[in-house]
C-alpha cells in the first residue's frame, strides 16, 4: 500500500510500505476513507517530537471501514464504518478507568503516527479496537466525521472543559486555527457573555467571527488592552492557548483576570517562561493536557444532529495520493487560507489472509 512516511526532520514521502496486519487479538485493520493533517504532524516534521522514529507513517485521525478484526474484538466487525480516534485506550489501566485515555499505560495513549504507524495511509492497524474506534451514524459525512477524531475533542476537553467555561464568562481564545475555532464553537455551548479571538491572519479572524466570536483582535494590535477594555480592566475569566509558541502563552497570562483560568492546548516545541514574578499573587489556574477523547461519543451525536460547525472547518480536499501537496498547503496556512485539509481515497486492495 501507499502511505505518508516520516524520514527525519524535514524529510517525508508518499511511498510504498508493507500492508498492516493483525498483531494482537484486540487489533483491527481499517481501510482509510478520509484523513486530515494536524498541527502536531507539522511539529513532527520540524523535529519537535523527537520520540517519533524515522520510518513512521504519520497521522492520527481517520474515518474508514473495518476490513479485519482480531479474535477478541467485540464492538465492531468487517464492513462497519468507523471513526479512528487519535487516542488509543487499553481500557484496563488506572488512567483508562478514570477516562484519562490520553495517559493510558497499557499500550495506548497517543500512539498512532507517533510511536506506531498512523492513519495517513490506505490502511491502518488500530490496537485496542473496541475502545479506540467508534461506529459512525450513516448521516455523518466522512469529511465532517474525521474532525471528531482529534480537533473537536481537543478543543472541547483541553480548552473549554479544562478552562471551566461558565455562563457569563469572558473567554479569550489565542490562535484561530482549527483547534482555536473549534474552541470558539464549543465554548458557545456554555453561554459565555463574550468570546474574543486573537490571531495574526485576517482570514482566520474572519473565520472566528463565523464560528461565533463576538470580537476579534490582531495579535499585533494590543489584544490584552482590548480584553481589558471589554472587561472594565479585569481581564478574561478563561484564556485558551491554541498556538503553542512562547509568545502566545505569555500573552495568555497577561490577558487572564485574577482568579481566572489559562487552559493550554498548544503543542510547545520550545521552552516557555512562566512569569511567576507577576502571577504568584493572581490566584490563576493553569491547566495543560493531552486530549482523552472521553467526549467523542457525545460530540458525534451533536455533529450528527447538526449542532457543530464541522463542514465550515474544511477548506481544502485532496486525494490521498496528493498528501505531499496537501501538507504544503496546510503548512502555508497564512498564504493558502487553509483551515482543515481533508484527504480521501481508496486506491489499493489489502490482501487479507483467509480465515
Walk me through this protein's architecture.
- This protein is α/β, with parallel strands linked by helices and 355 residues long.
- It is 27% helix and 25% strand.
- It contains 13 helices and 16 strands.
- The strands form three sheets. Strands 3, 5, 6, 7, 8, 15 and 16 form a seven-stranded mixed beta sheet that branches.
- Helix 7 links the parallel strand 10 and strand 11.
- Helix 5 (151-161) packs across helix 6 (178-187) and helix 8 runs parallel beside helix 9 (246-255).
- The radius of gyration is 20 Å and the shape is globular.
- 51% of the residues are buried.
- Mean pLDDT is 95; it is low at 345-355.
Q: What overall geometry do the principal axes of the alpha carbons give?
A: globular
Can you tell me the residue ranges where pLDDT is under 50 for at least 5 consecutive residues? 345-355
Distance between termini?
21 Å
Structural class computed from helices and strand pairing: alpha/beta
SSE order in H/E notation? Answer: EEEHEEEHEHEHHEHEHEHEHEHEHEHHE
Amino acid at each position: 500500500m501507499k502511505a505518508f512516511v516520516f524520514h527525519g526532520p524535514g524529510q517525508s514521502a508518499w511511498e510504498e510500505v508493507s500492508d498492516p496486519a493483525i498483531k494482537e487479538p484486540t487489533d483491527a485493520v481499517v481501510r482509510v476513507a478520509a484523513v486530515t493533517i494536524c498541527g502536531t504532524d507539522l511539529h513532527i516534521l520540524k523535529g519537535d517530537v523527537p520520540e517519533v522514529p524515522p520510518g513512521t507513517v504519520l497521522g492520527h485521525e481517520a474515518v474508514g471501514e473495518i476490513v479485519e478484526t482480531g479474535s477478541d474484538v467485540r464492538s465492531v466487525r468487517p464492513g462497519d464504518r468507523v471513526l479512528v480516534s487519535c487516542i488509543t485506550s487499553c481500557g484496563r489501566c488506572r488512567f483508562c478507568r478514570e477516562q484519562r485515555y490520553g495517559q493510558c499505560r497499557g499500550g495506548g495513549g497517543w500512539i498512532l503516527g507517533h510511536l506506531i504507524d498512523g492513519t495517513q495511509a490506505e490502511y491502518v492497524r488500530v490496537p485496542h479496537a473496541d475502545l479506540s474506534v467508534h461506529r459512525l451514524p450513516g448521516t455523518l459525512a466522512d469529511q465532517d466525521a474525521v474532525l471528531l477524531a482529534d480537533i473537536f475533542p481537543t478543543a472541547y476537553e483541553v480548552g473549554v472543559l479544562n478552562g471551566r467555561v461558565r455562563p457569563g464568562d469572558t473567554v479569550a481564545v489565542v490562535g484561530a486555527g482549527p483547534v482555536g475555532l473549534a474552541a470558539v464553537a464549543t465554548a458557545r455551548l456554555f453561554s459565555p457573555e463574550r468570546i474574543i479571538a486573537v490571531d495574526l491572519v485576517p482570514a482566520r479572524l474572519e473565520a472566528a467571527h463565523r464560528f461565533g466570536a463576538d470580537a476579534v483582535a490582531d495579535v499585533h494590535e494590543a489584544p490584552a488592552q482590548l480584553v481589558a477594555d471589554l472587561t472594565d480592566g479585569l481581564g478574561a475569566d478563561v484564556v485558551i492557548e491554541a498556538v503553542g509558541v512562547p509568545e502566545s502563552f505569555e500573552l495568555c497570562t497577561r490577558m487572564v483576570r485574577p482568579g481566572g483560568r489559562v487552559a493550554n492546548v498548544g503543542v510547545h516545541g520550545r521552552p516557555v517562561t512562566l512569569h511567576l514574578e507577576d502571577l504568584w499573587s493572581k490566584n490563576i489556574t493553569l491547566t495543560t493536557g493531552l486530549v482523552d477523547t472521553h467526549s467523542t461519543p457525545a460530540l458525534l451525536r451533536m455533529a450528527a444532529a447538526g449542532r457543530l460547525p464541522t463542514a465550515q472547518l474544511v477548506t481544502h480536499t485532496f486525494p490521498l495520493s496528493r498528501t505531499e501537496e496537501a501538507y504544503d498547503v496546510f503548512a502555508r496556512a497564512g498564504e493558502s487560507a487553509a483551515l482543515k485539509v481533508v484527504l480521501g481515497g481508496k486506491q489499493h486492495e489489502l490482501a487479507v489472509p483467509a480465515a
